[in-house]
Amino acid sequence: MSSFKRYCEVARDAAQPIGQRYKSLRYAAERYSWLTRTSFETVFDDLRDRCGLKVGVPNRDLELVAAAMELENARRTFLAQLNTLTVQRKLEKRCGRRSPGGEWVEALARTVTLGRPAPR
Fold it and tell me: Does 16 map to a domain?
């Protein structure tokens, strides 16, 4: 099991202390932002907006579960699109066509559903 999945499981587990669940959600968001090359702050801001997480206010069970599910869905969607684009790119190379790598990176960046590209 990947650490991302484990962090999401802890975030959804009502038996865990709320502080541990919140930390696990943050760690999962960090993993997602690293995978998608997006800014962690923007990923977490999007989760706050979509799921009603609040800063400085104890979050309830529903918000944490919704945020963990949203994060898992975004990661699953991104990985599926990454796989599709990788297969397309390999097929292009086999056929002798080479589209510029920048187009491939831009297409991948458009599939990110949480967060915005990290500053370079």
Answer: yes
